[in-house]
Amino acid sequence: MGLDLTLFMADWEQLSAIPVENRVQALDDTTWPPELDDEYQRYGLAGGWLWPPNRGSAWCAEYDFFTTTGAYSPHARAGDAWADIRLLVDASVREAMDTFLVGLIWDADPADDPALTGGGGFFPPATDRGLRCVLLVCPPEAVPGKARAWERVESHLEELREPFATECESWAGRPDTFEDFTALLREWGDVTTEAARRGWGLVGLP
Fold first, then answer.
1. Residue 158: pLDDT above 60?
2. Rounded CA gap, 103 and 138, in Å?
3. Phi, psi of 176, deg, nearest 5
4. For residues 145 and 150, what is the distance between their CA atoms, to the nearest angstrom?
5. Cα–Cα dist 97/86, whole Å
6. What is the DSSP string of 4-53?
7. Mean pLDDT of all residues in the chain?
8. pLDDT of residue 40
9. Short-list 88, 93, 75, 32, CA closest to 174
10. pLDDT at 126
11. Is the CB of residue 110 less than 8 Å from the CB of residue 81?
12. What is the pTM of this model?
């Protein structure tokens, strides 16, 4: 079975009041209260966001990607596709896309992945085998820059079509089509835009 990705946006101030070792579980428990039956689980889905029952006081929400089935692999494939084509893209677009995707679905240097250290200690690091770790951490201070980068990139997505056709089309381990690739990028654009609007951070759990 492959790895899944469950993505949350969260109020870092509220989350920081919870002990580090309990923060991951708190995200799950808040958006998926154990007292609700499975048949009622999609109670607050709006615009891709799954909100807790008391949305007015909610401090986190889960994003339900339309273009995936919850698996992590489409995100990894999209990140690999960007790594393949980035040197074929105009420098201004490449710089903006790098800023947008780094730490989300692509890393210039995987060793610098913030998830490995739990986002600088905000979550348990990947080396702590006794606790559930995170796949990605994007703190609130980093999100606005990604949202601004997305604004610069969005109107230039069509410029990626030819590089994608050259380097990725029909290759195993890459998005099936250019449309699949850009649809997922647009979802990440929506996610970062909404999180930036709220001043919240992003957390990806396996």
1. yes
2. 7
3. -65, -40
4. 9
5. 9
6. B-EEEEE-HHHHHTS-GGGHHHHHHHHHS-TTS-GGGTTTTEETTEE--S
7. 90
8. 46
9. 75
10. 79
11. no
12. 0.92
pLDDT tens-digit map of 22-46: 999 999 888 766 655 554 455 555 6
Residue keyed to tokens 């999100």:
143
**What gap in Å lies between CA 205 and CA 23, rounded to an integer?**
11
The residue among 71, 65, 16 whose CA lies nearest residue 206 is 71
Residue 26, amino acid:
A
Q: Could you tell me the strand order of the sheet in which 136-138 lies?
A: 45-46, 49-50, 60-63, 6-10, 201-205, 136-138
- Contacts with 61 (C-beta within 8 Å, 6 or more apart), sequence order: 8, 9, 10, 31, 44, 49, 50, 51, 52
Q: How far apart are CA 55 and CA 52, in angstroms?
A: 6
Check pLDDT > 80 for residue 21.
Answer: yes
